[in-house]
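Our consortium's second objective concerns turning raw sequence data into structural hypotheses that experimental partners can test. To show how far this objective has progressed, the report includes one record in full. It was chosen at random from the queue rather than selected for favorable results. The single chain below, 107 residues long, was entered without modification.
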Amino acid sequence: NNRLRDKNAIQALMTKGKWIKNGHFTLKYGQGTALQEARIAVVVSAKIDKRATERNRLRRRITEILRKHPFLQASSYQCVLIPRPSSTKLTHLELTESLKDLLSKLH
């Protein structure tokens, strides 16, 4: 499983990590150890939608796209992905393209 779960690691990335943005996402990232797989946390704020069901739906859609994306096998980054409100209106294809665009800036 490539999910970043440790609250302290997430907090450290949020304060000290580098960041990349595009129109629909912000990605905070830091370099993990060479032996680690890439790990990613998807943080969907209540600012995105007040309904938990909508936030969870967006989180699940993003997680599924990331699961299939080869980025996760290719590096040892630790990342926190933060969607912006505009990401809720995207189709699956647009969401995938936006994430690929963002993750391609990492390398």
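The partners drew two points from this record. The chain has a mean pLDDT of 89. The radius of gyration is 13 Å. Both points have been shared with the crystallography group to help prioritize constructs.
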